[in-house]
Amino acid sequence: MGQKSRNKITSKTNKTATSTYNFQHEVIIVGAGLAGLFTALKLAPLPTTIIAAKSLGKGTSSHWAQGGIAAAIGEGDKPETHAEDTINVGAGLVDENIAHLVTKEANDRIEDLLKFGVPFDKDLEGKLQLSKEAAHSTRRIVRVEGDRAGAAIMSALIETEKNTPSIRILEQVEVHKLAVEANSINGVYIWPSAAKGTGEGSLLKGKRVILATGGCGHLFSKTTNPNMARGEGIAMAAQIGAVISDPEFIQFHPTAIDADLDPAPLATEALRGEGAHLVNKKGERFMVDIHESAELAPRDIVARAVDRELKSGRGAYLDCVNTIGSAMKDHFPTVIQKCKEADIDPLVEPIPIAPAAHFQMGGIVTDANGRSTIDGLWACGEVASTGLHGGNRLASNSLLEAVVFGNRIAEDIHNEASRRPQETIAITLNDEQTISPKLDKKLSKSIKTLREMMFQNVGVERDEKGLTEAVRILKDLEPELQESEKTKNMCLTAKFILTGAINRLESRGSHYRTDKPEKNKSAKRTYLKLDDIENKFNNT
Ligand code: SIN
């Protein structure tokens, strides 16, 4: 690890595989997706250490984002309308103040990204080009080269970060545990990535920690998320007493490319925004009878419809051939490439699709400044539950949430910076620490069972029988999953999702229970702590 780390402060101290690093930071950021990088840039010049599990830019959901960022920029569009769309799609659980605050700050954050060098698509007059996605009342998504927003944004931020001396990146390092003292954060425990949370972690002290660890799609066997998105942020925060909200709301993207690939590549919703149709084997547009907006209905409704077509044997496809046609080459190069990797030519045949876990609406409860319930711990991006998404997220609101709260968190920390002086911390890491092949194989088998169980039993549709069976399977797996900090975290976050799903005796947004298909009008957001989970789990 020592040789691979960027902005490394000291080199190896001896000829064995142990390295000592000196740190002097005000802030530690765990995670190097859009939320982590943008927040670090906004924190400059405060000394900040970012911990990245892979080499910078790799393994993050942000990098894979195809759609773009929603912002009320177009003629006649207003932040209020964007907020209304967000609230309407969120199944009655959106925090309206947060929706208004986020949509109002969207334009300024797009300006920031332009300043950081993001080459958003513009028309001949120099105006930003806007795409349409489901449940937006107008074209509102800023994009890059059609469907390359995530990769382009990340690459611009990485370039800017290289010229920002206050940011140090520790690469190929993972955090699996947080340190706390009297309900106040005291740092993070780090491991070389190759150790996968086995053996001892080293304490990297810090009085301000921002978790930007992303989502939990990898807890499900079908997901559009990279395998780093395994929900560890929720588990780490819960273990030090943080409150978790709405973990049961998992958004399944309706149009993952169904080609037996793990993770499943995405066919962006912007394709439907440009007119692509959802059809079954007979070529019938099944969404037309289900919702007045047909293919552009809210994502939860489309995901369930696709799921039902597949389960009924009628099949589900995204037809771009007779709709977008050869214009795909200019506007959707990533989708064409992903299809090619799966041996599909979307210019001549419909794309086989299936729903896949894509985004977690709930997470670590945060306030309007991204603060969790633990002093010194902020959460940003998908790992946080800001209240913006309610029970169902509006497309392309996730990158927006990351930059709006990244900016708010940075301002919050700038406002208090003088109260927590930096100290020099020396830590020693064993660069050669790796998981034993035998344990790795054993844990991989348990992870596979866990992921299949989550997709089958806590998936697009749920019921009491399936959820109870999921608890039984997880109880069987638990002793083995306790053998590494990483899998312990995966197990705990799965328990949160499962418990949330068992407790919510209704259907709303992305949480659909076939045994409780109605919405309970008085149901509210879910707030859970570690003890609630363990008690419920042990008694189910
Ligand atoms: C997509 O491009 O379909 C995904 C966008 C999002 O999840 O917001």
Protein described:
The chain contains 15 helices and 21 strands. The protein is α/β, with parallel strands linked by helices. The strands form 6 sheets. The protein has a 5-stranded parallel sheet, covered by helices on one side. Strands 19-17-12-21 form a 4-stranded mixed sheet. Strands 13-16-15-14 form a 4-stranded antiparallel sheet, covered by helices on one side. Helix 4 (96-115) packs across helix 11 (398-416). Mean pLDDT is 94; it is low at 1-6 and 8-15. Succinic acid binds next to loops.
What is the element layout, followed by pairings?
Layout: E1 18-23, E2 27-30, H1 34-43, E3 48-52, H2 61-64, E4 69-70, H3 79-89, H4 96-115, E5 130-131, E6 141-142, H5 149-162, E7 167-171, E8 173-181, E9 184-192, E10 202-205, E11 209-211, H6 232-239, E12 244-245, E13 250-257, H7 270-273, E14 277-279, H8 299-311, E15 317-319, H9 328-331, H10 333-341, E16 351-360, E17 363-365, E18 377-379, E19 384-385, H11 398-416, E20 425-430, H12 437-457, H13 464-481, H14 485-503, E21 527-528, H15 530-538
Parallel strand pairs: 2-3, 2-11, 3-7, 11-18, 17-19
Antiparallel strand pairs: 1-20, 4-6, 5-6, 8-9, 9-10, 12-17, 12-21, 13-16, 14-15, 15-16
Bound molecules: succinic acid.
